[in-house]
Amino acid sequence: MKPHFSLRLRVFNLNCWAWEEPAAPRLTAGPSSSDVRRVKNPSSHLLVPSVPRGIPYLSKHRADRMKRLGDFLNVESFDLALLEEVWSEQDFQYLRQKLLPTYPAAHYFRSGIIGSGLCVFSKHPIQEFTQHVYTLNGYPYMLHAEYNRQKDIYLAHRVAQAWELAHFIHHTSKKADMVLLCGDLNLHPKDLGFRLLKEWTGLHDAYLETQDFKGSEEGCTMVPENCYVNQQELEPFPCGIRIDYVLYKAVSGFCISCKTLKTTTGHDPHSGTPLSDHEALMATLCVRHSPPQHNPSPTHGPVERSPLISVLREACTELDLGVAQARWWATFASYVIGLGLLFLAVLSALVAEGGIREIAILLWTLSVGLVLGVGAVYLFHLQEAKGLCRARAELQHVLGRAREAQNLGPEFKPALFLEHQEGYRTEDQ
Amino acid sequence: MKPHFSLRLRVFNLNCWAWEEPAAPRLTAGPSSSDVRRVKNPSSHLLVPSVPRGIPYLSKHRADRMKRLGDFLNVESFDLALLEEVWSEQDFQYLRQKLLPTYPAAHYFRSGIIGSGLCVFSKHPIQEFTQHVYTLNGYPYMLHAEYNRQKDIYLAHRVAQAWELAHFIHHTSKKADMVLLCGDLNLHPKDLGFRLLKEWTGLHDAYLETQDFKGSEEGCTMVPENCYVNQQELEPFPCGIRIDYVLYKAVSGFCISCKTLKTTTGHDPHSGTPLSDHEALMATLCVRHSPPQHNPSPTHGPVERSPLISVLREACTELDLGVAQARWWATFASYVIGLGLLFLAVLSALVAEGGIREIAILLWTLSVGLVLGVGAVYLFHLQEAKGLCRARAELQHVLGRAREAQNLGPEFKPALFLEHQEGYRTEDQ
Predict the structure, then answer these.
(1) Which residues cross the membrane (chains A, B) (predicted)?
(2) Could you give the ipTM of this predicted complex?
(3) Which of A255, A289, A323 finishes a domain?
(4) Alpha helices (H) in B37-114, listed in sequence order
(5) A278 is annotated as an active-site residue
(6) How many residue pairs bridge chain A and chain B with CB atoms within 8 Å of each other?
(7) B242-293 confidence digits (pLDDT tens)
(8) Which of A128, A167, A427 sits opposite B6 (nearest CB)?
């Protein structure tokens, strides 16, 4: 980029809640395809994650909502439109055709069995894209997303995902001009996962940073006014919940600010039926050239600050609990498998002796099913424990380094630490 | 790093072939845990992938080999020792204790159900590590690695993996000083996957670059002289195969050369029983400061060169074939499921009518098993098709950009392309 320039970037984000109606895919509501998208646009890195929520009913008026969304995006002509939960590739193709004149670049992110549901439309050419699938994605036998914060059974998974996302941003954005992270994170602003993400990456929350906010109370992105929202789920949150975000940071030689942020308020932007059960976010960002020394958010994460250490410690504790729980379930499942196999052996003996054959065969069938089913549960929790251990090992490593940096005083930046180590085997010529 | 300096880096790599003996894990031989490791050391990025091969027999004399490996690494005192197929965490812990005085930093990479088998020992502190698990990992029902190049059933998966690895390096090494990629890639030097990896990343092959090579004929890393090698598998390759590599590149402001490369030759370094069925690689690399304009390997990949376009095109064709095949299998499986369900309905009717109950129940059991099994096959190939489509979409995007760059002439570097686009919404202040 040229010095002394300013770039205005208008971004749209929406969790579209677009399930295909005829297929009634109850089974596909599992959160197994959560992804992180990364798109490198003219002079920016865009990072767009989404953790699809499980929705046990069909999305309503899908075709009509898609049409109105397309019309709205064409009229507004954003720089970027980032959509989540577009589960049908046909919907993406429909939008692609409709938006082609205004947004010539587009990409649909495929992954897993049901896809990622993520797509991006851009007014500017997309230079590169890449995709990262989370290691842990909740429990396949619990299809419903959890909004209860008191007893969040997904807590360890959320923390591991937030860490993975932060790590992905950290490793892929080192030479970027800016990072933009938009999407439905399924995390409330005070959640451990969200704090971990913000502390480790140094991302800024558009809602907190902007001086010109228009939209729903407290910036909520699921509000009781929206007729598609399950009112019972939102009962503990009278004005709604904020789980969709526009987060950003400038990386080097730039500064970035959020001029305006708007959300829809339970209706479509022209006060009709809502576009989704989530509210749309519309941000205007301003990117400016700035001397590197005034860089407000260091690339390597603010290692020397103690809030980081405290949130890392908290995350480690949660992962410890998660690992213990996963191992408990794996052990429990292995006992059930043992019992099932014993029962099978007894039944086989009964059949061989010529006992009540019919019932024996039926029971045999049932217990084979049980052993196989519990075997799958066992393997799942074994893999869950390994995934959580992996996140914990990475976290502990960072925590160790953060503590070292803190002990060496606030002037001791990670970059210096690096240079210090480089002296090791250096031989001056 | 300081200007005018030179750094000597001694690297050791070995596929350890260390399966735990008492557990006899025939089932664990599947290639489902192939990983990419990334370790950032004093002034380098290390990228270490491995595609574990399926070994249908137990690894022999494991404890003794681990002991001798530890002794050798301690005596040689490399900067980095990179090991693959260390499947038991106990083996890693044993080595860790043994190597602690010489290699104070170490990491074991956990993933999936059986782990990744990867670990790293370093003389210098490890600043960061991250891990990437391949999307596609071969067919779970075919446990044996394929050395036959004429009819390689894994070809599409190998190409997709090579692409994913190249993409990972591309996105994570932009601010690195150097990239080092070591490991058992399960790719021969002329394989499409290997050519794709080299062309897109600009990595250099230590075996081809060094002027001081000592070791097995043609640099082979699985040789018939090794008593652990399955001689039948190697029959088509009289002097062995080369599938383990040390690859490197300098990224910016540095140049790197391979001073020496050694391999073992079917025995351990002191001419005893081999350390593994693979040969070890020992490289001495020399990293020097160099003015940025003499950078031999651009970070963004040599987009303007036509060998890249040709290899990208070839890879696209292979992925097309892979996608078609995966879809064919998914369709075939769905027909079998349909037939199985029909058969079940007929059997249920027979039982209800009071026919030969015993046999009916037995058949019912068998067909439920069949439907469930084929259901799993169906889901697997559906997910395989999506994974291959994803790699193809990324490849096609890069191919498109490479063609554009070529049409615009050889002076048209990707960096200029980027700056060109940045002009778009730029408003000079």
Answers:
(1) 328-352, 359-380
(2) 0.78
(3) A289
(4) 62-76, 89-99
(5) yes
(6) 167
(7) 999 999 999 878 899 999 999 999 987 776 789 999 999 999 999 998 876 5
(8) A427
